[in-house]
Structures are given as structure tokens and as C-alpha cells.
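Input/output pair, single chain:
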Amino acid sequence: MLLVRHAGTPGMRRACFPAREHADPASLIRAAALMLGTGPRTKAFAAPVPAAMATAEALGLVPTVTAELADADYGRWSGLPYGEVAAADPESFAAWLGDPHAAPHGGESRAAMSARVVRWLESTPRGQDVVAFCDAGPIRAVLGHVLGLTDGARALFDLVPLSVTKVTATRDGWRVAYVNRVAPTRRAS
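Output:
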């Protein structure tokens, strides 16, 4: 299973809480050149956000839009810069950072998002080529599940836009093949 962080967005550049944004046109051009090694039998999934769906489509894939791959709902913090939220409401921001079950923003906790993503992961058919397009939160949730990490430790993974993380199903569970890899690209002709 390949997990692709979707193309960059204006909010990513401004270090904002994820929101339902469109991808930057230049990032979609880079996405279209990626070589993921997908074939005609690959099943594509995308989070229900414009940037994830557009990233899959830029690669010529028709994804199944999958609510379970959405990042957490950050409620009233959606789209706001992290630094602005931390300055305006330091106690709530600290609670959110320190407790994966906290949702002071009125949305979904990181723990609830992780549980949702893990349910999706465990329900995907084994032995099928799968590529999923989403933001960093769901990819961190998968890595945390596979590696047995705490919710806090999951946040330690840096995942750049259009990076690829691969996990493989085994008889005994999942294994991490690689994280945050830059996929090769086609040469412009």
C-alpha cells in the first residue's frame, strides 16, 4: 500500500491547520510527473478534500473518495495558522498538543481520527495494490498503528507534499517499507 501526501496547498505553505483546500497548480504539475509504479489493477483512494482528489486525478487515477482518509476535523481552527492559534489560545493549544483525546477546537480529536484511519487500513483487502492520497495526519496514523507508537510519537514524522510512504501487509500484520520518499518523476519531453 502506497500512501501519498497530497499536493501542496496555500495552507501548507502558511503552516495552517488542514482545511478543505485546492492544490497549488504547480504542485499538481509535479504530481502529474510522478512515477508511482501503479498499474491498471491498482485501487486508488482519496480523502474527501479537493487537493487529495486532484492529486490522484493528476496521475490519471480515478480514486474512490473515502471519508476515513480525511485528516481530523479541526473545527474552528481549520485553515488557521498554528502560530496564530497558539498565541490566541495557548491553554487550548497546549491541551491539544498534550492530549490526543482533546478537541478544544470543537472538531475531532487526533485519537478519534487515528482510530478511523486504522479501521480503514485494516478493512482494505490484502494482496491488492492500493494507493491512497491524503494529508499527513492519516499517514501518521497508519505509521503509528504499524509501529505501535503513541499518539504523541506519531506527530514526529515529517511528511512533505507528494512524498510516498509504503506499508506492506504480511501474515503477521503490517510492515513499513519506507517513509516520506520522493517518488521518481518522468522527464519532460
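The chain has eight helices and six strands. The mean pLDDT is 94.
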